[in-house]
Amino acid sequence: MMTHCSMFSSKKYLISILQLFIAFRINYIKLFNKNHWEIIIMSKIFTPTNQIRLTNVAVVRLKKAGKRFELACYKNKVLSWRNNVEKDIDEVLQTHTVFTNVSKGQAAKKEELIKAFGKTDETEICREILSKGELQVSEKERHSAMDTQMNSIINSVAALCVNPETRRPYPSTIIEKSLKDAHFSIKPNRNTKQQTLDAIKLLKTHMPIERSRMKIRITFAAKKDNGPKLVESIVKMAASVELEEWIESTLQITIFIDPGNYRAIDDLVRNETKGKGLVELLELKDVVEAEEIF
């Protein structure tokens, strides 16, 4: 009997121990899980990937009225905007806010905008900063962008210009060397087209070079009172006259011109003929390639 009671007490004791162990285990697991999730939650709160921030940002900076103003832009869009490739300002700006410090998120005050720009329309101010401001890039990126733009300018000059003595285009290597000798430098705030024209103007002071000429044909009904006068005005803007032909009372004149005179001639013919005259572009450029004229 005593043995049976002892055994029963022993079993009861073991069960109590087991219950205590299970209770401890459950509480430990709860405690561990609680701490574990707290750690996870805290890491989520403080991890940088969960902070709201501007990404792929390019800063355009303009100093005016003794104050620094900055825009947060998309990196690949600023040059596209300046080259007139991108027309939508919303594709360029990450926000229309004008900052005094983009990295710190400090927006310019209304009083500061009025003092510097004379207005508070931030979109209009953004346009001015995009046009006149300096794109902030690393030294490596700056050199890469300048090299790319310089190559584009060199190729454009080579494509647009000729040696006036031979009517042949210059190789790109000659254009590159001449620009270097003339101390031509890239201006970050001007687009490629503008700088190509700057380069041509500078090269004209260092070597024989001119824009390749366009070939156009002008047709209009000429009258005795205004026909000769209009022809004279047209010929004055022409580099050379290839053909002048009368077909009854209609005059056809084929000329070579500097590309810069095309719009002036087109306006002249349209105004003098009250829109009845015709200006046709026959060849974009007059360049000697081998033994042919293109």
TrEMBL record:
- Principal place where this protein is found? cytoplasm
- Domain Ribosome maturation protein SDO1/SBDS N-terminal intervals: 56-142
Which Gene Ontology BP annotations are present? cytosolic ribosome assembly
One Gene Ontology term, aspect cellular component: cytoplasm
Q: Name its cellular compartments.
A: Cytoplasm; Nucleus
Kindly indicate where the leader peptide sits in this chain: none
Which protein is depicted? Ribosome maturation protein SBDS
Organism source for this protein?
Answer: Glossina morsitans morsitans
